[in-house]
Amino acid sequence: MRKSHIALAAVATLMATAGAAHAASSVTLYGVIDGSVEYVNRASTLPTAATQSVGPLFRQPFAGGLSSSRWGLRGLEDLGGGLQASFVLESGFQADSGQVQSSTAGMLFSRVATVGLNDANNKITLGRQTTSITDGLVNFSPMRFAATYEPGIWEMGVNYRENNMVKYTGNFGPVQAVAHYSFGTGAAAFALGSGTVLANGGAGETPGNWKDNTAWGASVMYLDGRFGFGLAYDQWNPAVTTGSTGKVVKIGAGASYTTGPLKVMGGYRWNKAEFANGNALIRDGYWWAGVNYQATAALAVQLGYFYADIREARAPTVAGSVGPGTNPANPYQLNLTLDYNLSKRTDVYITTAWAHNGALAFDSVYNAFAFGYAAAPGQKNMAGVTTGIRHIF
């Protein structure tokens, strides 16, 4: 009888140990699927096409109306003493075709691939992740960088996600501080044009030329439920030729105020992107303002205004372009979104946008036509509407 008691006690101890180990580690599968149908009144094929086709565009866009579709794995292990190890692997895909996100073909985890350590307030992560300026300003964006129509890449740059990054995130009550350094962003070009394709595919980490395609930045954000403020700096050193770096600098600030169902926000971002010879590819100031209103428990309304003051721009056709700078017409855009929650995980929406002096989402050579819109020669206005379903799991 005593031996059986000992055996039962041993089994119970093993089961308790296994349960504690299981409780200390976790892996979560998560994701978003956003599918939509879109109509644009007048668009053109991209300038890189052999022939141009101009007219109405009716399609299922590769990016959802509110969110880019993605799936991911998030893991956490308790190391004791308040220290945890974590990882995130997140892959983007096209909801209309099921293909891996087109702009990052060949990258399985194109959105996030990190491993790190953290305690209650501090986190260090290594791998592919978003920049500090993105983290610091996203909460002041009228549509939270909606995948369709909001000029988020114009604001943050094509390098808003970077490879080879070491990143620090600190959370201290209502204050978040972020700083990062990338040894090579992995962005292949800093605009669309033969003069902006980067050496070694933008990978960086070049022997003898450590600065090639590196980047760094920092941000600080305050959010207390009513007031919010963010300030951020971002620098990228793209090298078209090995050992010869240009410089792209962005400085931004945003603010918000929330009262009851109403949130108002706005901000400004200064930008200068220049070749290694000092000639500016583009200099601009970008302004935005918006209103979010929770009209009912299920219905949310978002309104946004976006304006770019382009002070100087050059056609990116030759490395270190020496052509004269131009001062093109300044684009601006209005967005309206109605988002209705069918449940906590599923919503339906309709978004409409109108742009003047440019394409929707400010699509141009300067954001590498990230959304696939191109204005026809001489076109002044472009309007679009998209409606869809989003499910979060």
Automatic annotation (TrEMBL):
Main location: membrane
Residues of the signal peptide: 1-23
Assembly and interaction partners: Homotrimer.
InterPro entries the record matches: Gram-neg_bact_OMP, Gram_neg_porin_domain, Porin_dom_sf
Compartment list: Cell outer membrane
Name of the featured protein: Outer membrane porin protein 32
Porin domain segment(s): 10-357
